Amino acid sequence: MTTLSMKPGQRYSVPDWETSNMQISDTAIHKRGISHEIRQEARTLRNETTNKTHWDKTDSSRRLRDRIYEVSHWKDNLVSCAQEVDTEMDALTQNKEELERALAATVLPLEVALDCLTLRERRRGSELVSDPVQAELKKEVEVIGGIQRTLQQRISKAFEQLCLLQETRHQLTRDIQNKMDALDVDSTCLSLTETSRDISLKPNPTRILSGFTTPQQWEQFSKCNVSRAQEEMQASQQLRGDMTLTKAQVLIELENQSMATDFALRKRTHQLEGACDKLSWQLKTTKDEITELEQDIRGLEEDLWAKTAPLKLVHTRLENRTTRPGMDLCRDEVHYGLVAEAQQLEATIMEMKQKLAEAQHSLQALQQHQACMGEDLSRKQDALSLEQRSLETRQRLSTTAQPEPVAGSIVPLTNSSGRHALDLL
């Protein structure tokens, strides 16, 4: 008898089978619903994230453009300020060099004044006097010394101010260079797109570096640089005004003192010329008087010699008449006349001798005074020659050509990078 083979295992009933099919269908419907909902949410999320990414990128690009504009604005302000600093440095350097030339120009007047003082020390005797010329020359030396100290102080202040301007210029240059570098970075960032070859994922790009500053600090830094530059430029302008005023004052002071010294020297020269002329006239008159006195002395000596013979004659007559004998030895009119003649001749001779002695004494005094006047005239002529040499020495002040400033010869201080005007392009 044949047996029917059957697959081992649990057997389900038809209702169970139908129930199972129903569960499978319901589960499929449920899963499809969940999938549909997820797909809708995903589509919404894609749209939202795409839009948000686009607008975030647009906002970032706008912020970059705004930042580039702001940085460019401050860079332009800094460049303009740096150019103004350069202009002020050029002007201050030119004023400084003008003062240096004015200081160098005081060397010649000082040398001339000292030469004149040295020359006038060679005067001799009574001509070595402390006259107004001496006082004016000494005052001129003091004035020039004061002018040199004043100019040197102004030049030193100008150099210090140039150093401050140079430091300010260096700070502006560094700030400008930083902003140019920042502009390069931001411009590069603005030019990047999703298809650029230089983009990539970076490790921790949102980290906060230790050197980060706030926008307020960034703006305040540039404001401080501009403000300091403006303060230094204002101080430089004030200093340039003071330097110009000082230069004008010292030139006027030096010119006035030079005119006073020249006037005193010319006046003294005129006085010496008058004294020399007067002394020369006195010397000539004295020489003439000596000549006449010598002639009169010779005349007195001749007359005195001529009186000797008549005196001998009278003495001889008187002596011979003493030999008269007896009553003829009479004191007659002849005797009285001879005695009177003898006394008169003796008195005349005595008077002439006295006059001759006086004349010789006067001649000696005149000759001595003539020698003194000759020596004094020599001293005065030497002093006059020294005064004239002093005048000739002082002519160097007017004949020496002053060097004119050459256009374009001013070389201002360079900035720390070795360039005067930075190439900011």
TrEMBL record:
Domain of life: Eukaryota
Gene Ontology CC annotation, any one: axoneme
Localization per record: Cytoplasm, Cytoskeleton, Cilium axoneme
Protein name: Tektin
InterPro entries: Tektin-like (IPR048256), Tektins (IPR000435)
Region listing for Disordered, in residue ranges: 393-414
The keyword Ribosomal protein appears for this protein: no
GO BP, one annotated term: cilium movement involved in cell motility
Annotated organism of origin: Aldrovandia affinis
Keywords from the named record: Cell projection, Cilium, Coiled coil, Cytoplasm, Flagellum
Family membership noted in the UniProt record: Belongs to the tektin family.
